[in-house]
Design a protein that fits this description.
- With 113 residues, the protein is an all-beta fold.
- Helix content is 0%, strand content 53%.
- A hairpin with a 5-residue loop joins strand 5 and strand 6.
- The radius of gyration is 13 Å and the shape is globular.
Length: 113
């Protein structure tokens, strides 16, 4: 079973940037597809980006062009760089391991004007 912990959230002004991290333990995630999501207004998961074990990436239209998902297999970690943040980006951000459907507890991102 893999344990995931997100970090890097916080308060940022409109137009700013954040780099979120997701550290995994209990399992080598280097071959796993990993994703970033955030909590949608209806409290469901809102897909943002994913990266396969081969490094192939997919982005939602909502963040395409201003988000970059990456991974560092030496750190067993996943990252999300978000730029040009808007008020609508305020949410709790989660990482997910697709291999065993594990989620982290989330990290809060608040964008202020």
């Amino acid at each position: 079973q893999v344990q995931l912990v997100e970090s890097g959230g916080g308060l940022v002004q409109t137009g700013g940037s954040l780099r979120l991290s997701c550290t995994a333990s209990g399992r080598d995630i280097s071959d796993d597809t990993m994703g970033w999501y955030r909590q949608a207004p209806d409290n469901g998961p809102d897909f943002l980006a994913m990266i396969s074990g081969f490094g192939l990436t997919t982005y939602s239209d909502r963040v395409k062009g201003r988000a970059t998902i990456s991974r560092d297999n030496t750190q067993n970690a996943l990252f999300l760089q978000m730029n040009k943040l808007t008020l609508d980006d305020s949410s709790v951000y989660y990482c997910k391991n697709d291999h065993n459907q594990s989620w982290g507890p989330g990290t809060q991102v608040t964008v202020s004007s």
